Amino acid sequence: MKHIGTFFLACTAWFSLLATDVNLVKNPGFEEGGIRKGDTPVHGWRARSAEGMLPCHAIVSEEPHGGVRCAKIRIPEGAGSSAACYFSPQEKLVLQGGKTYRFSFWAKPLEGKGRLRLVQQFADGRHHLVRELPVNSDPNVRTWRRFSMDFVVPDSETEAKYLLFLNLIGPGEIYYDDVSVTEIVPDRYRIDFYPGSVSHQKKFPVLKGEYAPLFLYVFTDEEAAGHDLELELPEGLTLKAALPLYCGNEAAPEFSCTAEEGRTVCRIPLLPAAVLPLKQYTTSKRVGTGLLFSAAETSKGGPLKWKIRKGDEVAAEGVMEVVPVEPFYGKIPARLPVYSWNLPILTNLRNRDLLTGYLSQVMKGGIRGGGLFFRKEDHELFDQAGFTNFQSQWYYKPVDHCMTRFLKGDTLTRRFNVRLETLKQYKNAMLNLDYEPSMDEYNHWCEDCRAAFEAETGKSAVDFPDAASVQKAYPAEYLKFRGGQHYRIAELFAETCHQAGVKAGFCSYARSKSPETNLRVEKLAGDQKSYYRLMDAVTAMIYFTPDRLWDQLTTNLEYWPDTTVTFTSDEYIGGNTPGYALLTPESVYLETMTAAMLRCSGVLFFVGCHTFDAAQINALRKALDEVASFEDFLYSNDPPDENAVRILGASPAVRSRLYRKGDRLLLGVIN
Questions:
Q1: Residue 122 vs residues 3, 92, 128, 161, 203: alpha-carbon distances, Å
Q2: How far apart are CA 224 and CA 310, in angstroms?
Q3: pLDDT tens across 484-501, in order?
Q4: Which residues in 334-381 belong to E strands, given as ranges?
Q5: Quick one: which H or E segment has residue 443?
Q6: Residue 378 burial class via C-beta count within 10 angstroms: exposed 0-12, middle 13-18, buried 19 and up
Q7: 4 or 660: which carries more pLDDT confidence?
Q8: For residue 130, what is the enclosing H or E element?
Q9: Which string of DSSP letters, residue by residue, matches 222-249?
Q10: What residue ranges in 22-121 does DSSP mark as E strands?
């Protein structure tokens, strides 16, 4: 389920940065050289189209942002929502590991959906999409807008090559100009806050009368000891707890809050274990400090000022705006459970009264389970509440990619039992195997694999030097051989879970309408349908925006009807927020409603609702309330009719179903 790209977006750039003057993009303003026809319309740039529509590109002089030219893409109506055109620099970008780069450009999206895509190219010719940045049109803004983000190349990438694409997806019109990629020299500190609204907008929406979590991540090359967080709180906001997040058995720091000149100032010592070195910025996922506030029902909000102190020095500081929001309370559906992959406050909070109150709030919002990683205390409290401890078990890659040797020992069983040791204390518990093998496992070949292949298939493979030659000679037998190994891994996982009294969940690749894609999925993970029946739950890795979700989810449900669909909120990975993780409140609502309309067995937020701000929480509650209101129709035994209703003039993004409950009908439409 992890989709960790090579680029790492610095979501909260509340530290000083020094930019170099060297722009790695040639001809950034499309000014140099003559204008040509074809797929190289101007010096330094290529133009491509997913559907061969080269006339959709142009270099024009229509009100450029700078100079006398800019790039234009126009896809006509009727081209289809999957039509795509893009401009891309002809020269690949060579970026140095450990360095920070700023990507910046100006765009004027008049209609449709633009997109920046960042793609890494490997030495063997493979490509990997590592980032998508939306550049969407706004009917109220028809002027040039600047888009910018910073990213860090991991230390392991000593000299990596990347491709940049400026896209338009589906019918519309967009202009691009003044593109730049420059190296950034960061200061001594990187400070990140979550939820995402704090990172992107410096706003902290909170629900009146409820708890509000805030997460702080500090990275520095200074000595970790001796750092403190100072907060100046607006009226109506109270700090209830400060917690080390995933710092082992570290006790929560003792903090103090005092009234000073009509304001409340809180001082929290930051544990050295929660202050990480800068080099871990691109790899750390969870370690930090969690803050739990309560917002008064009468709260009017205001500025929340923060400072990171190192002794007497102010190492970093900033301001976020606390925005009080009226909470929404509604019904909770019985047949659409919602889980959160990661719940750091519930995992690390030790105060029993606060724990009881916050757990009640989470469950009233529709969350029935989530990852309480290695929490052994208070399991009876969670059991009484009916809360499911829903934990992940990452896929462990076999040594040298050899699944044959991997299956001979007890490595897998021992690894599963590490998580099960904690989980089996809970009455309601599930271990979810995140199963993402690569083609390296499929294409591995050694003497152990040869002997196992011959024993299973009866075919001689003595004369074949590698897996490619075996696949060419015995394609069906080889596919079945590797599929059998995947089956045994899944079977071992399910048996180990059930012996511990824990449910077995499985998370793996989604199905496709393309036979070629499905064949690749079978090579990667085997015949999933054969071993999915061993599991108590199946979670498909479906990460799409709402307008593309319906088709992908429908395809997977045809393959596995009891699918639990996966969405994400603000996934924290060392400052990285992947494109699939940026759930707006509207997306939270639409994707939850889509899951219900297609009769999914549940919704799983990958890292989860713990990073939702007030607007996202309300959106989820409203969606669940609506699902509960029509649950008898949406989950009735009468099959829905997809063809009984035709929405005249509807775009491909508009989908409908007619639901029956006895002699009553319900029309559901997603737009």
A1: 17, 12, 8, 7, 39
A2: 9
A3: 999 999 999 999 999 999
A4: 338-340, 367-370
A5: none
A6: middle
A7: 660
A8: strand 127-136
A9: S-STTEEEEEEEPTTEEEEEEEEES-TT
A10: 45-49, 57-60, 70-75, 84-89, 93-96, 100-121
CB atoms within 10 A of CB 311: 9
Look up residue 23 and give its two tokens: 């722009």
Q: For the segment 45-82, what is each residue's pLDDT rounded down to a tens digit?
A: 999 886 555 678 899 998 899 999 999 999 988 777 77
- Residue 581 is classified by DSSP as G
pLDDT digits (tens, 9 = 90+) for 333-370: 999 999 887 788 998 899 999 999 999 999 999 999 98
Identify whether the C-beta of residue 277 lies closer than 8 Å to the C-beta of residue 204.
no
Is residue 633 within 8 A of residue 625, CB to CB? The reply is no
572 contacts 608 by C-beta, under 8 angstroms: no
Asked if 285 and 231 count as a contact pair (C-beta separation under 8 A), the reply is no
Write down the H helix ranges in 429-506.
439-442, 447-457, 467-473, 475-499
Taking the CA of residue 187 as centre, how many other CA atoms within 13 Å lie in the half-sphere pointing to its CB?
11
* Tens of pLDDT, residues 619-640: 999 999 999 999 999 999 888 7
The token pair at 240 is 């209830």
Dig out the tokens for 136 from the structure: 């969407």
CB-based burial, 535-573: b 16+ in 10 Å, e otherwise: bbbbbbbbbbbbbbbbebbebbbebbeebbbbbbbbbbb
Cβ(59)–Cβ(35) below 8 Å: yes
Rounded Cα–Cα distance for residues 375 and 381 (Å): 12
Residue 582 banded pLDDT, cuts 50, 70, 90: low
The answer to whether 110 and 190 are in contact (CB under 8 A) is no
pLDDT for position 3: 32
Q: For the whole model, what pTM was predicted? A: 0.78
Residue 290 β-bridge partners: 215, 243
Lookup result for tokens 């910073």: 150
Q: Report the distance separating Cα 647 and Cα 655, nearest Å.
A: 8
Asked if the bond preceding 195 is cis, omega within 30° of 0, the reply is: yes
Q: How many Å apart are CA 373 and CA 389, to the nearest integer?
A: 8
Q: Which of 189, 286, 186 is nearest to 246 (CA)?
A: 286
Instruction: State the Cα angle at 462 between 459 and 465, rounded to 5°.
Output: 115
The count of residues in the chain is 671
In the structure, what pLDDT confidence band is assigned to residue 283 with cuts at 50, 70 and 90?
low
With a cut of 50, say whether residue 245 has pLDDT above it: yes
Q: What is the pLDDT of residues 143-178, one digit of tens each?
A: 999 988 777 787 777 778 899 999 998 889 999 999
Quick one: tokens of 35? 């204008």
Classify 88 as helix, strand or coil: strand
pLDDT of residue 230: 98
Tell me the pLDDT tens digit for each residue of 562-575: 888 876 554 444 44
Residue 435, Cβ density class (10 Å: 0-12 exposed, 13-18 middle, ≥19 buried)? buried
Residue 224, both tokens: 């970790």
Q: How far is CA 510 from CA 51, 264, 302, 558, 565, in A?
A: 25, 50, 44, 11, 10
Structure confidence at residue 1 (pLDDT): 38
Full 3-state SS string of 260-310: ECCEEEEEEECCHHHEECHHHCCCCCCCEEEEEEEECCCCCCEEEEEEEEE
